[in-house]
Amino acid sequence: AEARPLRLFVALDLPGDVRDALAATGAAADPAVWRAVSPDSLHVTLAFLGSRPPEDVDAIAPIVAAEHHAPRLTLGEVLLLPPRHARVLTVTLTDPTGALAALQERVAAALAEAGVYTPESRPFRPHVTVARLRPRTRPPRTADLQLDPLEFSATAVILYSSRLGPGGARYEPLVAAALRS
Ligand code: 2AM
């Protein structure tokens, strides 16, 4: 029998103190409206591949492993996305050196070259989703949350598989490459 497809995405991993700060922001949002993302699920998506045959993991692994240098980043602001009918509460990332944008472009181009990814036409806007709108809930217009301007280095590039379950998606790391800061 054919192996089941995997729902795959490549993401940037964050240091523990940054995860804690982001989890606190998610937890500070109105719990009647938002469900906070658990600290171990927080990440920055670089490329969402969607449903792929499991064999694709062999082609993706060397692309994930090819990255070495950690982009230096800063937490930006709390932003509701999409702007008019928000479904997620996010924290944007500031990329002062452009290293993250360059890394994302390299990874996306290599994945496309390997035939496992169709690059998005919309520009890459780095963010971390910290809470998701509860079902059948009217999204607020603003988040009204404060954020400390934390500065940090990303820690790793990770290929995740996402399993949809009753309690939301669960992310399983399949390939991880640590980044040097
Ligand atoms: P989000 O954080 O902005 O919601 C795993 O689902 C990750 O892939 C999430 O971080 C999610 O981004 C992103 N993702 C899920 N579905 C997507 C899609 N159809 N297009 C782009 N990114 C997607």
Instruction: Please identify the structural class as seen in this structure.
Output: alpha+beta
The low-confidence parts are: none
Quick one: biggest sheet?
5 strands, antiparallel
Nearest-integer average pLDDT: 95
Beta-strand portion reads: 35-45%
Unique bound compounds: adenosine-2'-monophosphate
Taken from the alpha-carbon principal axes, the silhouette is globular
- Figure out the total of helices: 3
With strands numbered from the N-terminus, the spatial order across the biggest sheet is 2-6-5-4-7
Helix content percent band: 10-25%
**What's the end-to-end separation, in Å?**
44 Å
Helix-strand topology string: EHEEHEEHEEEE
Over the alpha carbons, how many angstroms does the gyration radius reach? Answer: 16 Å
Number of E-state strands:
9
What does this structure look like?
This is RNA 2',3'-cyclic phosphodiesterase. Belongs to the 2H phosphoesterase superfamily. ThpR family. GO terms for molecular function: 2',3'-cyclic-nucleotide 3'-phosphodiesterase activity; RNA 2',3'-cyclic 3'-phosphodiesterase activity. It holds the Pfam family 2_5_RNA_ligase2. Its EC number is 3.1.4.58. By secondary structure, the protein is of the alpha+beta class. Helix content is 21%, strand content 38%. The strands form two sheets. Strands 2-6-5-4-7 form a five-stranded antiparallel β-sheet, covered by helices on one side. The chain has a four-stranded antiparallel β-sheet with strand order 3-1-8-9. Strand 8 and strand 9 (168-178) form a beta hairpin. The radius of gyration is 16 Å and the shape is globular. The chain starts with 5 loop residues before the first strand and ends with a strand. The model has no long low-confidence stretch (mean pLDDT 95). The structure holds adenosine-2'-monophosphate. Adenosine-2'-monophosphate is lined by residues 9, 45, 48, 88, 129, 162, 169.
